[in-house]
Design brief:
The protein has about 325 residues and is mainly alpha-helical. It contains 19 helices and no strands.
């Protein structure tokens, strides 16, 4: 067992065991049925945990608890300043990133189970700023689904508002939350202020279809070229595979089906193709090329879907620390 290979659920299970039965029971009472089932199974399957790993998990929990206390005392900026002095800038950002989901108001959390079509129907007559605020609180996948169905002119306006969104006052959130609760028949209470930003917009754009992504970025660039550049630098697209080192490419290829790879490479730049071919055996490279030729012409949507599955695999591996992205490259739109 290695600390760096533990996921959040495993860490939670280790922490609960370390805290003892009384504390664990209090925590478990506050979980939903599905969350309780997952953590219970994880605790049941937990083997012997080395003392050094248990200490690291408990220390991480302590840091998160302290960060939450700092946020309550003086807000996110105050917490960041204190944490940077205590554990350094990199560790402070990591701790605050783990707490990011808790910055959302509990009322907005109800949206995670709302069908995208139902949400689209609710949002269609709302002001762009209200749409932007609500989308900034969804998961990137949900937000991408909603923004893809908006009219193109509204897509750009909402995207710009998400990318430039600052902290929102609790009063405004309460007003919007009350509307959500009335619409979806659920009672919740508000919590802390929230924000969007370039990172939120980049995560959403990573998940929508290419033509909408291009239109949105062009509109943002026309309004604020620096902001557009910031968003692009936070995105990862298929042609950015050239930014992975050979070890990361080889790790990625273990997660990707050969058929998906063959389809995706039909729309790839020569640089990306060369990067892939140089990290597989000559026999596999020949097999991929032959399969590409055998497929013949394909719909752009099918090619982009295959590319998206590979991009999602990269992001998943990056979150687990198994691949490293050194920066961002260009993006080609030509199908070959």
């Amino acid at each position: 067992m290695k600390y760096d290979e533990l996921n959040s659920l495993q860490k939670a299970a280790i922490a609960l065991v370390a805290f003892g039965t009384e504390v664990s029971a209090l925590v478990l009472r506050g979980l939903s049925e599905s969350e309780l089932e997952k953590i219970t199974v994880e605790i049941a399957n937990l083997g012997d945990v080395p003392s050094e790993i248990e200490e690291k998990v408990v220390e991480e929990c302590y840091q998160i608890f302290m960060a939450r206390q700092y946020i309550n005392q003086g807000g996110v900026d105050f917490a960041k300043e204190i944490l940077e002095k205590a554990v350094g800038a990199k560790k402070a950002n990591e701790i605050l990133a783990r707490l990011e989901s808790s910055f959302r108001t509990s009322g907005f959390n109800l949206l995670k189970n709302i069908d995208t079509r139902q949400l689209n129907s609710f949002l269609q007559n709302e002001h762009p700023q209200t749409i932007a605020l609500i989308l900034s609180q969804l998961t990137p996948h949900q937000a991408a689904g909603v923004i893809s169905d908006l009219p193109s002119e509204l897509q750009s306006e909402v995207a710009l508002r998400i990318a430039t969104m600052e902290k929102i006052s609790p009063e405004v959130l309460k007003e919007i939350e009350a509307t959500l609760e009335g619409q979806f028949d659920t009672a919740h209470t508000s919590d802390l202020s929230i924000s969007g930003g370039a990172k939120t917009m980049a995560e959403i754009l990573n998940l929508i279809e290419s033509s909408a992504e291009k239109n949105i970025l062009q509109s943002i660039e026309a309004d604020d070229s620096d902001l557009a550049g910031e968003i692009k630098n936070m995105m990862f697209v298929f042609d950015d595979l050239i930014l992975l080192d050979d070890r990361s490419i080889q790790r990625l290829l273990k997660e990707v089906e050969t058929k998906d790879l063959s389809i995706a490479l039909k729309a790839a730049s020569e640089e990306v193709r060369s990067k892939i071919y140089s990290n597989v055996s000559e026999r596999v490279a020949v097999m991929i090329k032959e399969e590409m030729e055998f497929m013949g012409p394909m719909r752009l949507s099918d090619v982009e879907a295959a590319q998206q599955r590979i991009v999602e695999a990269v992001r998943h591996l990056e979150e687990e620390g198994q691949v490293v992205i050194s920066g961002r490259g260009g993006k080609e739109d030509v199908i070959v």
